[in-house]
Amino acid sequence: MSGGTRTSGPAATRVLVINSGSSSVKYQLLDMADDERLASGVVERIGEPGGVADHMAALRQVSAELAERGLGLDSPELAAVGHRVVHGGTRFTGPTLITDQVLAGIEELVPLAPLHNPANITGIKVTRELRPDLPQVAVFDTAFHATIPEAAHRYAIDAATADRYGIRRYGFHGTSHAYVSRAAAELLGKAPAEVNVIVLHLGNGASASAVRGGVCVDTSMGLTPLEGLVMGTRSGDLDPAVVFHLARVAGLDIDAIDSLLNKKSGLLGLCGVNDMREIGHRMAADDERAQLAFDVYVHRLRRYVGAFMAVLGRVDAVVFTAGVGENSAAVRAAAMAGLEGFGIVLDPERNAVRASGARFVSADSSSVAVAVVPTQEELEIARDTYALARG
Ligand code: AMP
Fold it and tell me: What does the pLDDT read at residue 50?
């Protein structure tokens, strides 16, 4: 089975984007002629009570939902399918047409992303079964970070051990950082090559990146998406010795520690909830734990903003994106407070406006712009996919 043969006609301008996670499959169908979103949806609770049985059933449901709307997988207008794949390692540094060999390559990377890559692989396999003739493209979360120089991506551990096991910083959320850094340049009225930006992708997962002239030069996530900022349920940065301490003193085994740091830490671990909206409500009711969680979250964010200002030297814009970054004026205000000495001045009224488009929230006097740019990961994946499928 080869994904390289195309049977669709020249009028095929639609791309189906599949984001197959461990317990859900999200999809969007886009028309690349005008970037219009024709359909989108999610099948949740895969393998759980009340949900569908497995990924095959989930993809069949996606296919049925699309067919009901006359947009089925068999449609001649469908040009290609784009799959989000979390880990591309050092091998996949750009969008890649999926062949049996590429699929085997993604499978080899499972040890680096045991929570994510298997679900991505299942999504690819099932979609290829449903439409074996259609070009299918893997778009990797790590790819945009492939340009990070070695001084920034190498960990200071024994070099031979690191090389042998592929231990280095890879970075994630790459499609979002790529899209948002480009869109920020556009908002500034400049070409991506002319601007330096810090992108803060603050969703349930969260990461920061430093982008110089359109090229990523540093990022907060590492070997896995656990490193860096405080997230909904992930700890972000901590002293690696915490792991030894939990094993030796608390008696936790490695899987329990993995689960503690990935699923029961971050905002959830600090105050019992991982949703920034709920934390805002609790802070308004003088909940001290919620306030502390917010403060820890913001403190970490400010550390990275400061670090990436030093990495870049000159910064044209700090850009907020994803669920928290796009919607929480309180997080933006707290993260940017008191940075006038670095040329960052937020405009409180602009920041408070609830709007959906890309916009500035800095004052006219701010020499570093602060912007909100809604991320569009599916559109970015669709563009990469379409460009490759058309050859
Ligand atoms: P994402 O992963 O980008 O979908 O972001 C999800 C997160 O965005 C949720 O867990 C919320 O914490 C956060 N979020 C969404 N809407 C708001 C809002 N209006 N205010 C604060 N946080 C929000």
Answer: 87
